[in-house]
Amino acid sequence: MADFYEYSTPELVRLLGSRFKEYRMRCNLTQKEVAEQSGIGLTTIHKFENGTANSLSLSTFILLLRVVGQVNALDDVLPELPESPYLVRKEEKKAQRIRHTNKK
């Protein structure tokens, strides 16, 4: 298994684009069909798959995952965590944010 920490962000985007192309082809879809089904421009899809996209929004990526039937894979990216006893306050309310106190 690859250690993704060794990759730069642009390298990871290129890797995802290449993997997406494999999924698209296994679904027997053309780039044009993906564009039509997702509402994303053909140029954006082409650049993403070829690793020349400067950036791709998370929303766009999710739309692409839907087209190739992989939107449920998002649960593998950030799985739901069990309740943490450290984040429950004395009043039985879950903490909404973390604040650090200045210790001098």
TrEMBL record:
<dbReference type="Pfam" id="PF01381">
    <property type="entry name" value="HTH_3"/>
</dbReference>
<feature type="domain" description="HTH cro/C1-type">
    <location>
        <begin position="20"/>
        <end position="74"/>
    </location>
</feature>
<dbReference type="GO" id="GO:0003677">
    <property type="term" value="F:DNA binding"/>
</dbReference>
<dbReference type="InterPro" id="IPR010982">
    <property type="entry name" value="Lambda_DNA-bd_dom_sf"/>
</dbReference>
<dbReference type="InterPro" id="IPR001387">
    <property type="entry name" value="Cro/C1-type_HTH"/>
</dbReference>
<protein>
    <submittedName>
        <fullName>Helix-turn-helix domain-containing protein</fullName>
    </submittedName>
</protein>
